[in-house]
Specification:
The protein is about 25% helix and about 25% strand. With about 475 residues, it is α/β, with parallel strands linked by helices. The strands form six sheets. Strands 6-7-5-15-16-17-14-21 form an eight-stranded mixed β-sheet, sandwiched between helices. Strands 9-2-1-13-23-22 form a six-stranded mixed β-sheet, with helices on one face. Strands 3-8-4 form a three-stranded antiparallel β-sheet, with helices on one face. A hairpin with a 3-residue loop joins strand 15 and strand 16. Helix 3 runs parallel beside helix 7 and helix 3 crosses helix 11. The radius of gyration is 21 Å and the shape is globular. The two termini are about 30 Å apart. Its cofactor is FAD. Belongs to the MSOX/MTOX family. GO terms for molecular function: flavin adenine dinucleotide binding; saccharopine oxidase activity; sarcosine oxidase activity.
């Protein structure tokens, strides 16, 4: 089931949402949640039994494969994943060289982020792909974000953390990151966390795929794994999935975990907007890669971020920071009464000549000039766009669809979820087994029109649409 990964194909999960990362999301949302028992365990019944036939649409990606893993480990015996591509799915935001991950994202997704790095560091499925090089989360000048980072540092220290340090100035930063010795970063400040750094994304997904094969999870890829529509009973509940080759897969429960494709496949009442981000690489020499070995992952909210070069390929991945791009088209997802305008992902696997808009390419060049001036002018290769899907409040949409009983939604990654790969499936499995807490059930409920009342969403200006931009399309 698992395929070996050889190239970088997406970004996602590397764009922090400041307020959520500080840990306010679960606390503020829970204030409005319904009352629950003293142990806060859901009183809702299970959606499936251990012998139920379960289909996971988009099972070759992050949320889908993690869900399959947790269900199989709990003893569910009839699981099948459906995807256009085998694990690691080339349509997944996780089909990538690396993603930011670490132990500093406390309180994210109702607190489930707190255990994520421990799982990366302890679960043998994931441990080989976790790179504990540290992380620099930096801001430019005395900005509101710098203030939030300082608050985050104080909170981590109050929890007894000894692996964090406040970097007050350029000299502090360069002490932690000597490779920035020639960087033009006067006025920068931020948080250093010594636990975490980055994870080898596609390699980790491939490892999950191999584990699923050992656990007996079935699959269908290609045309027999590509969603066409839901199959409904006379009462409107879900009985399975029809794929584009006409195959009808019967199921007791269907999980929609198709990432950025989710709102295009099934009507979600406008709760998810799919957006793309971009990345490029510099091919380093073995000597250049060795000189940057073990560097902490560096993120700056204005200029972007980059990672330790991959040891196997010597590729240095770089990304700019911006609100993402949309790709609005007229489509009719299953359940919609008429065609509607939605942002539709443009698969890089199916459009391999796509690169990135000129403005983003210029911004990545700016990132290099400021932080790694010795690499200025080097060719930027393997340029591409990748796709994830945002909810307004950057919280998952993890619930049963109110119009289609028997359809569980596991989507709304909001650019954070790959770091959650080892643990997100636990939350989906808890929902399916009726064990999800009332607080989390409320946080991740079906919520069209709810907006972002607690300010946990991505924020910033509205994204531009690809139709307005040049430089990326080479058909």
């Amino acid at each position: 089931m698992g395929n070996s990964s050889s190239s970088s194909k997406s970004k996602s999960d590397s764009i922090p949402t400041d307020t959520a990362d500080i840990g306010t999301a679960g606390a503020t949302a829970s204030a409005a949640a319904p009352s629950a028992k003293s142990d806060d365990v859901s009183v809702h019944g299970a959606l499936a039994s251990k012998s139920s036939k379960i289909l996971i649409v988009g099972g070759g990606g992050t949320m889908g494969s993690s869900t399959a893993l947790h269900l199989a480990r709990r003893g569910f015996t009839d699981i099948r994943i459906l995807d256009v591509y085998p694990i690691p799915s080339k349509n997944s935001a996780g089909y990538d060289l690396n993603k930011i991950a670490g132990a500093d994202a406390i309180g994210l997704f109702g607190g489930s982020s707190d255990a994520a790095w421990d799982a990366w560091a302890s679960d043998p499925v994931f441990t080989p792909y976790a790179h504990d090089v540290g992380k620099l989360d930096l801001s430019t000048g005395d900005t509101p974000r710098a203030k939030r980072l300082r608050e985050k540092y104080e909170k981590l220290k109050s929890l007894g953390r000894t692996d964090v340090e406040w970097l007050a100035n350029e000299d502090d930063i360069k002490r932690k990151a000597p490779h920035l010795k020639n960087a033009d970063i006067a006025g920068w400040r931020g948080l250093y966390c010594g636990t975490g750094g980055w994870v080898a994304a596609a390699d980790a997904l491939n490892s999950v795929g191999n584990e699923l094969q050992k656990l007996g999870v079935k699959n269908a890829f290609g045309s027999s794994g590509t969603f066409s529509s839901l199959l409904l009973k006379e009462d409107g509940s879900v009985r399975g999935v029809k794929t584009i080759d006409g195959t009808e897969w019967e199921a007791d429960l269907v999980v929609l975990a198709a990432g950025a494709w989710s709102p295009v496949l099934v009507d979600l009442d406008g709760q998810c907007v799919s957006k793309c981000w971009v990345y490029a690489h510099i091919q380093l020499t073995p000597e250049e890669a060795e000189a940057m070995k073990g560097i902490p992952t560096m993120y700056n909210d204005k200029y972007g971020f980059f990672f330790e070069p991959r040891e196997d390929s010597h590729l240095l991945k770089l990304c700019n920071e911006f609100p993402g791009y949309t790709n609005y088209q007229t489509v009719q997802p299953f359940g919609a009464l008429k065609p509607i305008k939605l942002s539709v992902p443009r698969s890089h696997a199916q459009n391999p000549t796509d690169t990135m808009p000129t403005e983003s390419l210029d911004e990545i060049k700016r990132l290099i000039k400021i932080t790694l001036p010795h690499l200025e002018g080097r060719e930027l290769i393997n340029q591409a766009m990748c796709w994830c899907t945002d909810t307004d409040d950057a919280q998952w949409l993890l619930t049963e669809h109110p119009r289609f009983k028997g359809l569980v939604l596991a989507t709304g990654d909001s650019g954070h979820t790959f770091k959650m790969l080892p643990v997100v499936g636990k939350e989906v499995a808890d929902l399916i087994e009726g064990k999800l807490s009332e607080e989390k059930r409320h946080l991740w409920r079906y919520r069209p029109g709810a907006g972002d009342p607690n300010g946990t969403g991505r924020g910033g200006p509205d994204p531009k649409d690809l139709s307005e931009l040049d430089g990326w399309k080479h058909d």
